[in-house]
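[Meeting: bench + compute handoff]

Bench side (C.D.) handed over the final construct sequence. Compute side (W.E.) agreed to return the predicted structure before the next meeting so the bench team could plan truncations. Sequence as handed over:
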Amino acid sequence: MPPKINTNLCDGSGTCQEVCPADPNVFEIEAGKAKVVHPEACIECGACESSCPTGAITLE
């Protein structure tokens, strides 16, 4: 399952995008919030979830 982003918590720092090893990157920052744009590329490594400074990302 691709990551879920709680947009109420997301600060748009882009940390998820920076740490994501997937190619193409799973995330984009749009209007100051992270957005999942390539869910099929997610390898469910957990880097985004553990690196998010506000805890806005969860993997199920």
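W.E. noted at the follow-up: The mean pLDDT is 96. C.D. will use this when planning the next construct.
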